[in-house]
Amino acid sequence: MTTLSPERPDTVDLAPHVSLSDTISQTMTLAWRATVKMRRSLEVMFDVTIQPLIFTAMFAYIFGGAISGDVGSYLPLIIPGLIGQTVLTACVATGVQLRTDLDSGVFDRFKVLPIARIAPLAGPMVADMLRYLIAAVLTFTVGIAIGYRPGGGFAGVAGAILLAVVAGWSLAWIFTFFGLVGRNAQGVQGISLLVMFPLTFLSNAFVPTDTMPRPLEAFAEVNPVSLVITALRDLANRGEVTGAVGWALVGCAVVVAIFAPLSVRRFKKM
User: What is the distance between the alpha carbons of residues 237 and 152, in angstroms, rounded to a whole number?
Assistant: First the structure.
């Protein structure tokens, strides 16, 4: 008797490394997936649509007279500051949504696919750049409606919006890391808020730093949020690409260089 051995099924040899072009393609595919989710759950857009409308009017009219003497004088200070604050708040949702997806098991499917490990993390963050764009545009729109006149003109405002989107994408890596190390969505939100509030309020977003006690002023001067907001003011109010813009981009690059590898390493170990 002869024994017939079963034929081996055809196998596909997978490349040991994913090319850069494939990584970009996979990231954009997952970004499109995240965008579709936004369209089907519009409530996730409330923090970048409703919040800018309320916060811009509220901060301007409540604090304008106390800090700058009148609302008109306060707007060049507060409008760029509110853009930084709103974008940073939107970054918190990135980590919370990531933790929710992890708990639902959808990322277990991504991990067994022959795709770049960074793509499932960077894809939703690319989609969130649309949220930062909406928040920045609405904040400027409300500010102009209540009397803000940016000295930088259209080009300065456009540059400020672009910088805000880049900064939001960069800072979101911090909260992506929190989403990976947190045990549940509530815990991630709690950790993120503990980081977000000091970064926002211990900055130059709402008041000049020279009015703070010296230790707080020193922290605010090196706060990456302060660097971004100073650059936003230079672009929007004066239309100038100053050294603050360069330092803001350097700060964003440092944040990405630290937290992107940490996030990918953590994702591989999960």
Answer: 5
Tens digit of pLDDT for each residue in 180-195?
998 888 888 888 888 8
Based on the number of CB atoms within 10 Å of its own CB, is 72 exposed (0-12), middle (13-18) or buried (19 or more)? middle
Closest C-alpha to 86, from 44, 53, 116: 53
Q: How many CA atoms lie within 13 A of 9 on its CB side?
A: 3
Could you give the 3-state DSSP secondary structure of residue 58?
Answer: helix
Distances (CA, A) of 67 to 36, 76, 141, 142, 179: 42, 12, 22, 20, 37
On whether the CB atoms of residues 221 and 209 are closer than 8 A, the answer is yes
User: Is residue 149 classed as helix, strand or coil in its secondary structure?
Assistant: coil
- Give dist(CA 239, CA 150) in Å, integer: 9
Distance of alpha carbon 110 from alpha carbon 244, whole angstroms: 39
Task: For residues 136-150, give the mean pLDDT.
Answer: 92
Whether 97 and 44 have beta carbons less than 8 Å apart is answered as yes
- pTM confidence score: 0.85
Domain residue spans of the chain = 21-32+44-269
CA distance 229 to 203: 9
Cα separation, 143 vs 149, in Å, equals 8
183-184-187 Cα angle (round to 5): 90
At residue 231 the predicted structure's pLDDT band, cuts being 50, 70 and 90, is very high
> CB-side exposure of 84: number of CA atoms within 13 Å?
29
